[in-house]
Sequence to fold (162 residues):
Amino acid sequence: MQKITVECEQADCECGHCGVPRRKSYSYFEAWYVEKNDEKAHGTTVYTDRAVDTPPKQSCGALSQHGEVRFYLIDKTGDLGKKGVRGLWEINQVYLQGANMGDECATSPGLLPSTGNTPSFWRDDKDPTRGMRLFTLNWNCCDGNWAKMTSRPDEKVTNGTL
Fold:
């Protein structure tokens, strides 16, 4: 399971320069089903997580996604679903859509089951976080026409075991 915290700042171009930024932060939770003794999530072969983004034209800004990873047994969570298969949580959710922030700040875990509400088992968990991941994107399509993306998986996640 991963809690994704998104922080976004975006501005439209005004006279060839960045305008007044709009800021928003929010979190959501996505479930990665992993069979006992497996190293990868159900339905994945090459990676367990990825982040992709395309900055909108005529804008500038910054986006970060901070992922906090924990592992839970299905007995504790219930059947949240699997990649492409709905369970207690829905798939194909989009977060922050239609919030006057532009498309840049909207995020979707795609085929992963997800929720915008903090699950009680996460809130009540006293165990430490098992791993982290970070994705950042900075761009300026107003007066520089550039974009820079960084990502950092944590070895605890890459080499995690149940």
Summary: The first strand starts at residue 2 and ends at 14. DSSP finds three helices and nine strands in the chain.
